[in-house]
Amino acid sequence: MLHVASSLIAAVVCTTCHMPFDVVLTMYQSAQSLGGAFARYGATGPQACAALLIRESGPGILFRGWVPAFLRLAPVCVFSFGLYEQLRQLVGIGYLD
User: In the record, which residues are listed under signal peptide (predicted)?
Assistant: First the structure.
């Protein structure tokens, strides 16, 4: 249970930290192909895109899609971190302290 809880906490932290970068990068890279009103997001650079997003929609826009990203990442974290710890135990290295 400790490994599962720790893995879920790691998934929450990872998702929360990477979502602003993911949202800005996605908007910046897709701005030219979307065209129209979206073209202004990709006009000058990622920093300007982030500033424009925050100015127009507020800081909450940077966490758009957090739940799907967490639901995608949580099983990977639980499986891989638990497997990693069990493999360390199996080969005689022991758990991480």
Answer: 1-17
pLDDT > 80? residue 96: no
Rg for the chain, CA atoms, rounded: 19
Is the predicted pLDDT of residue 81 greater than 90, yes or no?
A: no
Q: Cβ(24)–Cβ(49) under 8 Å?
A: yes
Q: In whole numbers, what is the pLDDT of the chain averaged over residues?
A: 89
Q: How far apart are CA 22 and CA 67, in angstroms?
A: 13
pTM above 0.85, yes or no: no
